[in-house]
Each structure stands twice: as C-alpha cells, then as structure tokens.
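A quick aside before the break. I want you to see a complete sequence-to-structure record at least once, exactly as it would be stored in a machine-readable document. Don't worry about memorizing anything.
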Amino acid sequence: MHPRIEDYALIGDEQTAALVGRGGSIDWLCLPRFDSAACFAALLGDEENGHWHIAPTGAGPCTRRAYRPDTLVLDSEWETDEGAVRVTDFMPQREHAPDLVRIIEGLSGRVTVHSTLRLRFDYGSVVPWMRRADGHRVAVAGPDSVWLRSHPEVRTWGKDFCTHSEFTVEPGEQVAFVLTWHPSHESRPPLVDPYEALRSSVDDWQAWAARCRYDGPHRDAVVRSLITLKALTYAPTGGIVAAPTTSLPEELGGLRNWDYRYCWLRDSTLTLDALLSAGYHEEAEAWRDWLLRAVAGDPADLQIMYGLSGERRLPEFELPWLPGFARSYPVRIGNEAVKQLQLDVYGEVIDSLSLARRSGLPSKPHMWRLQVALMEFLRTAWRQPDEGIWEVRGPRRHFVYSKVMAWVAADRAVRALESDSTLTGDLDGWRTMREEVHQEVCERGFDAERNTFTQFYGSRELDASLLLIPRVDFLPADDPRVVGTIDAVRADLERDRFLLRRYSDEGTDIDGLPGGEGAFLVCSFWLADALHLTGRTQEALALFERLIGLANDVGLLSEEYDPVARRQLGNFPQAFSHLGLVGTALNLFGGGKTG
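That is the input. The structure line, written in tokens, reads:
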C-alpha cells in the first residue's frame, strides 16, 4: 500500500531536501540541488526507483516520531518484541558536498536493524556501478557519485543491485551511516563526523528558531512553518522553492501533477511580510535580493517563476518510466507555465519592493529604477488578458485579481513618490492609471446582482484570490462589496464547512484541464484573514484552529486537502500553505501587517 503524502517528514540542508516515511524509508531525494535529478524516486514509483530503508528487521511503521524541538532533526522510534531503537535523520548544513546522516541508537533490549540502500540516479532510471573504496561503498553513474560509510563499520553486502547492512544495537549503542554525493570526476569528498554534525545541527536550528519574535498562540506551529520555509530556501542565492517535490497529485489518479521545485513571484510579498514580521530580516533581505536579480531585464520578459539562481528556462517534459504517486500520471519535470503571462506578478514585485523599503531593508541603487521600468510597461500592458494567478491552461481572460494587482503596482508607486521627494517618476500618469484600473474593475469585474466580484470580466464564476482585495487595500474591509464577495466565495467554493477550492472547476473550461482538485489550503487561510479584517474575528479564530489541525503529525502541510478522503494532496511540504499559516497567525495574534 502506497504511503500517504502526510506519512512523510522533511529533512534538508537549505540546498536540497529528502522525504522520510513512517516506515523508515527515504523515498525522495534530489542531489545536489532541489531541482537536480532524484537518486531516490520511490515517492513517484516504487522501491525499484530508489529509496533507503532503515528499520528493525521485519518492522512496520515507527511507533512514534517527532522533530527535536525547534529543529529539522527527525527522531523515529520503534518498539519491537526485541526492544526499542531510535533512528535520527538529518542533513547537516553543507560546507562542501551534501551529506545525509542516519544514526541508529539502541534504547532497550537487543534489536536487529536492517538497512537497504537502493540508489537509482536520474529519477530512478539509472542503476549505478558499485565498488568499495577507502572504507566506503561507492556508487557511480555519469556525473554522479554517492559514497556510503558507517561508524562503526557494520556488515555490508551487495545483492539485487542494492547495498544491504545488518547489525544489532543494545541500549546506548549507536551506528551512524553517512551518505555523501560528489561529482564523479572528483576525488573522495571530505568526511563529516556524524555525531558532531548532529550536535551542530541541533544547536544551529534551535539558535535560528530562537530569533522568532512571534510569541502568540500556536507558536509551535508558527515556528515549524518558519523552519519549513527556511528549509525550502536555497541558501546560496536566497531563492525559496514552492516545494521540494514534483508531480504529487492535486487529484489522486489525475493528471494535475506539476513540478514545484522553483521560485514563484506570486509568493514574494507574502514571503517578505512573514519573514519581516517574524524577525528574520537577513532572510528577508536575501529573498529581496534574489527577486531583484531574477527579474532584471526587459519588463516585458518578466516571468511568473524562476529557477533557484534565477534561471529562466524551465522546459517541461514527462518521465514515462515513473507511474506517479498513487498511479497519478504523468510525472513532469520542469514547468511549462513559466511561459505564461500573469499580470499580477508585476504588482507582487512592486508591492514586495515597497514593503522592503518601508520596513527598512538596505536599499539597492537600481531598485527604484527597476520599479519605474515595470510601471512604464504595465501602464499599457494591464489592459491585456492573461492566464491569471492560478496558471490556468485555458484561454487568456481579463482576470479580476490580475487587474487588482495592477492597481496595487500603481498604488505603491504613487505612494512611494508621495512619501519620498528624492524619487522621480510619472506621478500624475501613475495616479491616472490607478484610477482607471480601479474604475474598470469595479464596473466590469463586479456582479451587482449578487454583490460580488467575479473571477474575470463578464463571468459568474468566483475565485478565492478575490479574498485578498481588502488585504491589498483595493477597497476597505467594511465596504459592502468586500463583505458580499467574502460571503459569495464561501457559498460557491467552500467545502466541508471551511475548506476552499481556488475556483469553480465543475462544468467550466476555465483551466483547460479534465478532472478536479482538492481544497487549496492557502485560500482557507486567506478566508480567515478576510473574516478577521471584516470584524468576524471569532469565525476567523475557529477557522484557523481547524486549519492547523490539518497538518500532519510533524506539523507539515501540503498544497491541498481532500475533504472527502481526508488526506493531503499536492506537492509537499508547500511553502504557500506554510506562508498562509504564518501570515494568519501574525494577523490574528501578532499585530497585523509589517511596514
């Protein structure tokens, strides 16, 4: 039986990440970066596509598991007839090559433990050549080499293109495995002391978590979300991936399976706001700087997403040898949506840079010039139809949220000029644009009969992104049109009393795709924010309590949730969902907006 998405926990080193199942199997790991080919791809296939299983011989799922407080160090414990053992999994922040450390410790009795390492490079398609060298088992294929060693050495042998190890542990005894990736043309990577690496990792994570200045209700959930966001950060550049996985389905057995190992501009303001509000100014500045580098160039070429270092080409293709998670095919690498026109990202970028300036982040000489260039392009481009925030693969339309974010761009640019006499720009022209966009949205994007804004001009469909209208100050929260929109969105998109879909996908051709999807978790957090802004705080509090209850046993959220099957869906863990959790907690308990 295939594990559920919520059966996994995350470990990582801020350059890549692995997913560890309840049964002690690491079923997903891309080396050396988030967007590299996976050497463990059982998550999207089966054991033959690569995994690393460590557990007591014959044991099933672990008895209990948890992260060590305020860390990304995972402890899984098994209680068996022979006794009890603990497996500690983590990835030390790297100095040279990426290391994956697994430490097995006896807790009681005398327990036999078995390790099965099945390396399969290139997303489970390439069986490497194995050899022994310098006390290691070394796997090599093409550009990749992986080195495995244990402390102390244990009995290890090869069988069926796998590396097996078996040993016993008694109370206080420990065996550590270290798996290290290295370019195959280079010599053996430097050795890491697994026990010292564990101490350092715990200390480093706890010191980082201690910087969090949020001290309200559900602090553990907020800190876990912030740790997850930190783990999804590509440290060399400051970019934050949407998720460390590809092709986890939005509908079991469906084809809405996308690669999320890239950095989306739509998340930029929410990311910056969450980091600044929680006290992480260094991380916020790194994200802001990544943003500036990524979007540099012709404003007409602005993309909705970029690679970890700002790469623009993310070609999409399918892997025919992988059947997909729970037979959800195809498995996709890359993301064709990178070519889409989404006008809302112009508003996101300008809003993010405005927030950075108001919050006191050190300025960059070219930052304002970039915003002026974006505004000059948007002055005429905002009138175009686009694909919208949700990357629909249907025809372009005049999406209301896209127009609202074009208004945000003009509004933030006008405010910047009004508050800082050292800046130069077309104040009158941008004011005129702001007024024109606002008037058009209120006339063409509003259904007066139902008292609600709609998904796109002339439609009757609704969209959860409309809940952000008061948050971005397009209209005040007490405006009857805002209140009406919130009620209409709930009536049309709500499932299971509090979970929202992104938009209506039944009987429409909006997204150009067959099938449906689950409830999109960040949208329900937006609903809580909107309820709070409109004075319905008790409803918002109740909703927030329900939402954090959807996290798995180690506090992680995927992209979506199936309210019927009651299981998580979509790529995991999802930065957008955890940003929603942090943002709503800050709005409800932490004093509201930054800057």
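Two observations worth writing down. The mean pLDDT is 95. The CA atoms of residues 372 and 425 lie 7 Å apart. We'll return to this after the break.
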